[in-house]
Write a structure and sequence with these properties.
This protein is of the alpha+beta class and 97 residues long. The protein has helices at 24-31, 88-94, and strands at 7-10, 14-15, 18-19, 36-39, 45-49, 52-56, 64-69, 76-78, 81-82. The protein has a 5-stranded mixed β-sheet. A 4-stranded antiparallel β-sheet has the order 4-5-6-7, with no helix packed on it. Strand 5 and strand 6 (52-56) form a beta hairpin. The longest helix has 8 residues, at 24-31.
Amino acid sequence: MNTNESFEVIPLVGAGSIKFGMTPEQVENFIGVADTSIVNEQNELVEFRSFMNITYTKAPQNGVCHIGFGRQMEVVIYGGTPVFRENPDLVIKNNGA
């Protein structure tokens, strides 16, 4: 996975090409195979790619329910503001919080 890939966060929709509700297979088609994966204490699949993690709802649905980014993912955008390259107060201010 390319850590320079742009991910625009859209609340209740997803981030970049990853949309909430997508299956692991659909996610893999867009951003490639996970580096590693685990099943957490809630029996949910969690996949790790570079500095990103994706959690899926329990089987049989297996739909994306969480998308997490590490600060190393410099091209995460929210409301036109680069989340990890801008002052956190500005990110919050620019996005209505």
